[in-house]
Amino acid sequence: MSDLLKLLENFWILKEEDSETFYQLKNLDKETREFIAKNLGLKFITTSNMVKLEKVPLMPKEYMGVLDFEQPRDYAFLCLVLAFLEDKGPEDQFLLSNITEYIRMNFPDEEVDWTLYSNRRSLIRVLKFCEKMRMIRIDDGNQEEFAENSEAEVLYESTGISRYFMRIFPKSITEYSSWQEILNSEFEFTNGISQPISDIKRIRAYRGLVVDGSVNFENEDELLYIKRQKVNITSELEKHLPEASFHIFKSFAFLAISESYKNTYPDDSNLCDILLLVASELLSKIEKGEYSLHPTNETLEIHVTSLRSILEDVQKQYKNFWNKEWREKSLEKVFEEFLKFLCELGFAKLQEHGFVVIYPIYLKVVGEYQVSDEAEESI
Fold first, then answer.
1. 8-state DSSP, 38
2. Which residue in 36, 12, 32 sits closest to 22, CA to CA?
3. 204 CB-contact burial (10 Å; exposed 0-12 / middle 13-18 / buried 19+)
4. Which of 42, 132, 203, 351 has its C-alpha lying 20 to 30 A from 101's C-alpha?
5. Count of CB atoms situated within 10 Å of the CB of 343
6. Per-residue pLDDT tens over the stretch 280-328
7. Which residue has the higher pLDDT, 373 or 70?
8. Gyration radius (Cα) of the chain, Å
9. By CB neighbour count within 10 A (0-12 exposed, 13-18 middle, 19+ buried), where does 187 fall?
10. Residue 235 and residue 245: Cα distance in Å, rounded?
């Protein structure tokens, strides 16, 4: 796997977890560093125990968030826990009550009530995430007990890397009023050296391909740049990201990764199987003339009841290939999860009046089950 793909696949690489990869990436070659700075406009951060590529997308999408989180309050608690950890060095110990008191004192506009189960559960999700990311360790106690008892105590230890979790913004984050402003602020400075970026379009186009994985007609300027610079982009990607195959179509462009890679579509889950099967059914209906694509951007607008009907046919025909959990789910539950995942991946968008807009990239990868002579199924 190339060095760039390792940096893209991992939020960060810690020396204590994988020292070989840590040292390999800490000594990243000059050409790859220049590609990251010039074409992606991203920061490559190294410390004595961590390397990290700050991955800023062209367009934020739901799947880019913390998937373990359930509500905006989780993110607010995470920000406050990070602020609390800011002054803590490696091996500094602290108690759960220190965190709850800090959040109670600093949560904006209201005082957090820790007698509420929902608040305690929210903080547990955040602390588990911090532990998973190796920003804290538990020295003594069980944080799950906090869910049932607001007086439960846990002894934690800081690892000292939490200060590298958040990106450094050109100004206080409280001065931004939208995520668009935050993204645009990326181009006020470049790579931490306070130099104006000369070719924002190039960086946005490369970020769309390399960080987001695709660029569609909604980013018209970037897509046009990709089409015009196809030869150069292909050459750069072959050099720095050889696992990627580069595809351009009328209304979108995307990268497909040949290596085993975290969090890619499709994986071997039943939910991905369902998306592939529905895509196959939709494509078949388009080819038969039952549905038509938008002449300009190749999207498909379909009513949610029609989409559910297609999924119902897929469920009836193929549910025996699914595991017990998915076989026993009702049509409504399967459709709910299917539609949620479809939108999270950026393959579709819910419209008003019960319509769904399907983006053309979704229809580029389809699947079907095949039964061998030995009645073994594969997709």
1. I
2. 12
3. buried
4. 132
5. 16
6. 999 999 999 999 999 999 999 999 999 999 999 999 999 999 999 999 9
7. 70
8. 23
9. middle
10. 11
